[in-house]
Amino acid sequence: MPHDATPLPPIAILGAGSMGGAIARGLARSGLASDGVTTTNRSRAKAAELDGLDRVTSVALEDAPTGNTDAAAAADVVLIGVKPAMVPDLLREIAPVLRPGTIVVSLAAGVTVATFEEILPSGMPVLRSMPNTPALVGRGVTGLAAGTHASAAVVATVRRLFETVGTVIEVPEGQIDALSTISGSGPAYFFLLVEEFTKAAVGKGFAEAEARLMAEQTFIGAAALLEASAGDPAELRRKVTSPKGTTERAIAVLQGARIDAAFATATDAALARAKELAAGA
Description:
It catalyses: L-proline + NAD(+) = (S)-1-pyrroline-5-carboxylate + NADH + 2 H(+); L-proline + NADP(+) = (S)-1-pyrroline-5-carboxylate + NADPH + 2 H(+). Helix 7 crosses helix 12 (259-278) and helix 8 (186-203) crosses helix 9. This protein has helices at 18-30, 44-48, 67-74, 87-94, 113-119, 152-162, 176-184, 186-203, 208-228, 233-240, 246-256, 259-278, and strands spanning 11-14, 37-41, 56-60, 77-80, 103-106, 126-130, 140-146, 166-170. It is of the alpha/beta class.
């Protein structure tokens, strides 16, 4: 959680889907959003999922057609959480009502700062963010890239906002796609490892429920140990790996399978696809 308890300014989250909703929940938990958060969703059902959060007003556009412009006009920080293809239209809709100096933050993958700055009023501070799904449980990693007009003070405000759902890493915009292959896609790589480890346990004769429990809790426990330790992963691995023991034999097989090359190639493939998507392919 952030150490700075200064209240955050009024915030609007337009298109508060799973990621925008996670941020609304983080802000509500943090107690920093004393000036309020307004979220918008197209349907009543989606808006209802965010009802009752502290200091959060959840608006359904089917009930309030001007909900996006009303929220944007009253906010000092506007998060854009709609699908990437819908971003330009939403920006054109809200641009006339934004007050000078309003901070606009993209949650949309693949939409560049340049796209935002072209549509919004000249000089408006824009940032591009790339949160990941563990933000849903307050353990996210968010990449944050400042646009042309985002001052250090603006970046600090947005950083504190995202720190309500985890850790923030500031990068130049050119690194956002690379970051997405690590922290953005990374949870899927981890879940794949747990899946395969579970299958290995089933292959050793354990029932599915036992196998899952062992695999999942071993990884979760190892992550907690890593977080609580001053050492790096290689050092912790050496502590588990007795010379000439069983773990050493297993690690040798994994290293022989070139797990290092597999991760490098996998993240390269994800980065190539990110560039294709950015080019509209």
